[in-house]
Design brief:
By secondary structure, this protein is α/β, with parallel strands linked by helices. It contains 9 helices and 10 strands. Helices cover 38% and strands 27% of the residues. The chain has a 6-stranded mixed beta sheet with strand order 6-7-8-3-9-10, sandwiched between helices. A 4-stranded antiparallel beta sheet has the order 2-1-4-5, with helices on one face. It is globular, with a radius of gyration of 18 Å.
């Protein structure tokens, strides 16, 4: 599926990061990172494993604190929020984990119902059912509503994980290695779904990946994280139009290995 050209409002930042630094002991993971995520944009952050990509989204969601720097999400400085304020902000952020993070003891319906009932106690049974069926239809798995996670394929579990995130109608989606461990055909399906979510739910997204096919298929803009800094950014083609051996090696590993 060819990616549609979304409406991106570059006058509105939903995430603003300035001079972000994060170290673990002597390991300097992020070394002065600047980032803007615009309203309606799919922004891909590319980098090799262990380069700090996942650390970045954990800081954005308040799971880790920065050492220094500004991290503003939907106009709120994340590390200055109280526990209650942070929880309120997280309801506006959808987090798609690598392992889908489904509860094995719950059916698909129960997995989707859990966050909805916990955070929206006023909903009627009819509203709950409508919301569950709506997001399952959006990810193409309405027929799996009564199945257990163990009965689903890896790609199906990934889709259900995204559906569970969408049920809270987030403004921002954070995808952590969305195609990791999936076969090439299923990767295409997930890439298409990420674009469909952007179009249907008008989300702004950061997609953390080392998969160049995912980056090329989903990214309106691509940023490359090298040695703790964003060294390249632009369209996919612009990022890889360089003689920088670090970038060329990364490209060759993905497409010629």
């Amino acid at each position: 599926m060819e990616k549609k050209h979304p409406v991106i409002d570059k006058t509105k930042d939903v995430i603003t990061i300035r001079d972000l630094e994060k170290s673990f002991g002597d390991n300097h993971v992020l070394r002065g990172v600047d980032l803007d995520l615009y309203q309606g944009e799919n922004l891909v952050v590319l980098g090799r494993s262990g380069t700090g990509k996942s650390v970045l989204i954990k800081i954005i969601s308040g799971l880790l604190k920065p050492d220094t720097g500004l991290v503003s999400v939907l106009g709120r400085e994340v590390d200055k929020l109280s526990a209650n304020e942070l929880q309120e902000l997280r309801l506006k952020i959808g987090f798609s984990f690598q392992n889908s993070a489904l509860y094995d003891s719950m059916t698909v319906r129960e997995n989707l119902e859990f966050p909805l009932v916990r955070n929206s106690k006023h909903l009627s049974r009819r509203d709950i059912n409508k919301a569950i069926e709506g997001v399952l239809d959006a990810v193409g798995l309405l027929q799996a509503i009564n199945q257990m996670p163990s009965e689903l394929s890896g790609g199906q579990r990934k889709r259900i994980g995204i559906a569970r995130t969408l049920i809270m109608r987030p403004e921002i989606m954070l995808y952590d290695e969305p195609t990791a461990g999936l076969d090439p055909i299923t990767c295409i399906d997930i890439n298409n779904l990420i674009n469909e979510v952007q179009d249907r739910y008008k989300t702004s997204s950061i997609i953390i990946t080392h998969d160049l096919t995912c980056a090329k298929s989903t990214g309106d803009r691509v940023i490359m994280l090298l040695d703790g800094r964003f060294e390249r950014q632009g369209s996919f083609e612009e990022v890889f139009d360089t003689d920088d051996e670090r970038v060329k090696t990364f490209y060759n590993y993905n497409f010629t290995a």
